[in-house]
Amino acid sequence: MRRVSLNARAAMDAANCDEVEIVLLTFEHPELPKPVRLSTDPTERLSIDPLLYGTRSSWSGADPVTDPYLFILASAEFPSDLEDAPAAATIVLENVDNEIAALLRSFTDRPVVHMAVVLASSPDLVEAEYRNLNVIGVDGNAGEVSLSISRAPIEEESVPMDRFTKDRFPGLFR
Fold it and tell me: Residue 38: inside a domain, yes or no?
């Protein structure tokens, strides 16, 4: 059972509420100079030229002043709690720039994604958190790009773990 703050619980139970749930995303990859931090809510204006909105939170080791979570047009589907299925999430980005597809196609190995749900009124208090997920698939069209996020696929684990080499299994090479 996960812990949920009283504010989040009251917001879920209320018919109408001013509380807004925000999904914070952190993408990490060895080829990135620093993590990419994204938010699904334009909580505050970060700069005028260029016009940027975002959320200031200290989640995942971010400095709220220098490393804000930048606002993107996106929707998110949270990982499920099913026992017999891996925790999988989907993030749908609005395809507002052609560079999004070029960036997503430039990676040869999978980026690591950390995902958290916070309230706009308390962005440092995490209501739900999903860490160490991988981007396992990208699908898109002219209007949107859909990222499938899950744990590392077990199908990619080497089985058997030992390689059948002459040094390891000499009886096979007589």
Answer: yes
